[in-house]
Structures are given as structure tokens and as C-alpha cells.
Design brief:
Blueprint lengths: L1 H22 L16 E14 L2 E12 L6 E7 L12 H12 L3 E5 L15 H22 L1 H4 L1 E11 L1 H11 L8 E5 L17 E6 L7 H14 L3 E6 L11 E2 L2 E2 H13 L8
Parallel strand pairs: 3-4, 3-5, 5-6, 6-7, 7-8
Antiparallel strand pairs: 1-2, 2-4, 9-10
Helix pairs in contact: 2-7, 3-5
């Protein structure tokens, strides 16, 4: 009897596993199917430039996220981490997630480090914080120029490079994109950022800007993004503004904004601005 029971149990197990395979469901313990994460190639610590500090020239490093599928001419996004100009890193899990999300949608993504206040940047500025802000913006601009120069090698369309960041990174991205003499970009993404009172830098013909900001932000008030939106409206620059209720300073890439995860919303807006007429994710 025990031998027959074991035989029946073995048959049931085989049929169960077969049913799971037919249904396309991997049993627990089986290797999961390849997903979008497997289609993204990551190259770490690329040197995109160098900049002066009190201790000498500092190497400026970035991580590159590239979609699979050959060296076509793709749009690209440069992301600048936050941290109050005193801390933060390009490998922050949220920025990694944003870069991977964009790469699976067909974007080349560059997550950069830049000079922080503790590096004591050698640059004009009345205070240590002012010098850190100026250095961050300058390094962000350097990253844009580097990517434009390397566009053909990396399969990037140099006319479709956007820059964005969160908090301090958004400040750096905004100042790099809109300051006189800065590199030309195709779009700007500001996540709970500010222009530190310099919205006058946005003039007619400037690149469009996506603004996302928590309504209850105690660190960078919502009014900072409202001022950018008002200036864009005044001079005829395209913008999209999402004020997110019940949110303070910062939100995860999965946080729902307008019914979509934040990372999806960013890609959707950039698709509209940088890839009109294309199928998203190509």
C-alpha cells in the first residue's frame, strides 16, 4: 500500500509541475524568467571629467545604464542625486531604480557624482554652501557636455539629452540647464527642487521642465516649484507640474503620482517631449 501511495504521489507531483509549466508559472525554487533588469547593461565609475578642489583635481565619476538591443540613436537622461550638497551618491537605490526604469523604456541613463561641500570646491562663491551649489551645477553641465561628446560611441542622440535630479540634485540640474552659457539640453526634470530665486534664468525658447513636488515639503517648500511653473508660463516654456498631496520632501520611484508610479510618470512625460510619435520603450 505504501509503495502505491508513493507512486500516486509522484504522479500527482509530476502533473502539478507540468501544469505550472503549461500555465507559465515557475514553481518555487525554480529560476525566475529573465526580466527587464536583465536587459540593462551597467558600466560603473566612468570618468566624465575632473574639477578643482582644495586637495587637487577630483575625478568626476558616473554610472551608465544602457538598454540592450544595439547601438541605435537613443534619448538619454542624466540624473543628479540629492543630499543637501554635503552627502549622497550615484548608487543610491532610488536613483539606481530610476535609471533601470528609464533604460527598460529605451533611454540611456547616466547617474553622476559631483563635488560636495566637503570637497572644498575651488570655484567662485561667498560661502562654502554657495561654492558647493555652483560646483554641483558646473559638474552637471560637464556631464551633459561629456555625454554629447560621446553620443555616437554610446548610441545617444545628442539633441535628445535631458537632465534631472532630486532636491540638491534638482537645483544643480536646473541651474546647469538654464544658466547662460550652459549646455543645451532637451528637457529638465525637477523632483522637489528649486532655482534658489533665479527663475529669471528661464527665458523664451528654454527647454521644457517637469516639476514634481510634495505639497507638505518642509525642506524645499512647494512655492519653489510653483515659482518655476509661473516663470515657464510667463515666457512660454512648456512645463508639467504635479503637486503631490500628503507628501513631504522626497518620494520613492514607486510612489503613485497622478495614478502612476513616479518612475513611470517621468518616462511617460519624457516620451511625450523627446520621442513624439515613437512607441514607448523602443
Amino acid at each position: 500500500m505504501r509503495g502505491r501511495w508513493r507512486a500516486r504521489a509522484a504522479i500527482v507531483l509530476v502533473l502539478t509541475l507540468l501544469g505550472l509549466v503549461i500555465a507559465g508559472i515557475a514553481p518555487s525554487g525554480a529560476a525566475p524568467p529573465a526580466g527587464p533588469r536583465d536587459s540593462v547593461a551597467v558600466t560603473r565609475n566612468i570618468r566624465y571629467g575632473e574639477a578643482p578642489t582644495a586637495a587637487g583635481m577630483k575625478a568626476l565619476l558616473a554610472d551608465l545604464y544602457q538598454p540592450s538591443g544595439g547601438s541605435v540613436s537613443r534619448p538619454a537622461v542624466i540624473l543628479v542625486h540629492g543630499g543637501g550638497f554635503v552627502q549622497g551618491d550615484k548608487t543610491n537605490p532610488q536613483w539606481v531604480q530610476h535609471c533601470r526604469s528609464l533604460a527598460t523604456r529605451g533611454y540611456v541613463c547616466l547617474s553622476i557624482n559631483y563635488r560636495l561641500e566637503g570637497d572644498r570646491p575651488v570655484i567662485a562663491g561667498a560661502t562654502a554652501r554657495a561654492r558647493a551649489v555652483a560646483a554641483a551645477a558646473e559638474d552637471a553641465a560637464t556631464a551633459v557636455r561629456w555625454l554629447q561628446h560621446e553620443a555616437a560611441t554610446l548610441g545617444v542622440d545628442p539633441s535628445r539629452i535631458a537632465i534631472g535630479g532630486g532636491s540638491a540634485g534638482a537645483i544643480a540640474a536646473l541651474l546647469a540647464a538654464y544658466s547662460e552659457g550652459g549646455p543645451r539640453v532637451a528637457a529638465v526634470v525637477s523632483l522637489w527642487g528649486s532655482m534658489l530665486g533665479r527663475t529669471d534664468l528661464i527665458g523664451p525658447g528654454a527647454p521644457p521642465v517637469l516639476l514634481i513636488h510634495g505639497v507638505d515639503d518642509p525642506t524645499v517648500p512647494l512655492a519653489a516649484s510653483e515659482a518655476i511653473a509661473a516663470r515657464a508660463e510667463e515666457v512660454g516654456v512648456r512645463y508639467a507640474f504635479y503637486a503631490v498631496p500628503g507628501v513631504g520632501h522626497g518620494m520613492s520611484p514607486r510612489h503613485l503620482v497622478d495614478g502612476r508610479p513616479l518612475s513611470t510618470l517621468i518616462a511617460d512625460v519624457l516620451d511625450e517631449w523627446l520621442r513624439p510619435g515613437e512607441a514607448g520603450g523602443a
